[in-house]
């Protein structure tokens, strides 16, 4: 018979499982077999992890020991509930932990392997068994899948770590400092002229830009020597389309044979810029996404089709140059972006107050020629503060992207030469055409 306390714990467990109650499916409630489903789930969790360990031929724990460990965790939790002793599972964990580190346990054939991973996995499996008894079976099963994947993918994870250099790990630490040390310390309130500056929001934009760049940077570091030009262009665009254009233009100047590959990378990196604008809008100002999407999507789709078709025709002419990008989490770069963003915020707020939309459009053209992200985030911030409407917001973004494209084609011509610029020109023309058509459609009221 269940006591009132046990019944409360069972009801709480069913709520924690979100309706995941197998005993009700098999009409086991109220019988002596009511706990059978959670025992079977525990055994399944142990088998999942144990099969992976058995495949590694670890003699100390495998396909039999891990299910027993998970079952022990479930039984300890059930006994603790029955005895009203919540510390009982903890005592079982401590006993297992002390047993796992006894010298006799490590007297196996391979004396060079301390089996610390297997011991840790066994203790985690015990804890998953406890979770099942407490009503968190779905979470325990999901955790078991993650644990098994982590154990199984050891060669791949080791290979990744061997590719990362000290500077790459340092960049991750820098990004962690930007995100979790500096950001929480900044005040989350509007200050400065026109209440345009919110230090917390300014740095949050820095974290978002740096985080997106970090994904592309580490992807290039890990896979840049194996992927083709299309994916390399996408990754380079995530980090910085300007830097990618500069690097590959210089490579073509040094090696004209790399022109085909360089043109593909440069064109796709600049097309990713349109996608970045839509992603920023979706994250920061979702209500403006239809307008921004109408302006950005035509050029993106047209340019993408054109670039991939040209790349497919000249695929055999690719070179093998690698891309070498600057760490986007560098503190100096982050501070310079934050300063530029703050200045553009104040200038845009002032010009919007004094001259209306035309003032913001002027800032968009001037600042967008060199750096698109800062002005785009500024415009989206104005929209979020209800100082700007969706149509002028999308128009300002289109002006910034168009000015940036003009600057890029000049950069490519000056650094990479006329042949490379002519190869890239159709894609930039498609970007301009898409921006123009999208902006005209927007002002003609296609979304109204």
UniProtKB/TrEMBL annotation:
The MgtC/SapB/SrpB/YhiD N-terminal domain, residue ranges: 39-158
Lineage top rank: taxon: Bacteria
Transmembrane segments: 35-51, 63-81, 87-108, 120-152, 172-190, 202-223, 229-248, 291-310, 331-353, 359-384, 396-416, 428-447
Protein keywords: Membrane, Transmembrane, Transmembrane helix
The DUF4010 domain, residue ranges: 207-416
InterPro entries: DUF4010 (IPR025105), MgtC_SapB_SrpB_YhiD_N (IPR049177)
PANTHER family reported in the protein's UniProt record: DUF4010 DOMAIN-CONTAINING PROTEIN, MEMBRANE PROTEIN-RELATED
Name of protein: Uncharacterized membrane protein (DUF4010 family)
Source organism of the structure: Paludibacterium purpuratum
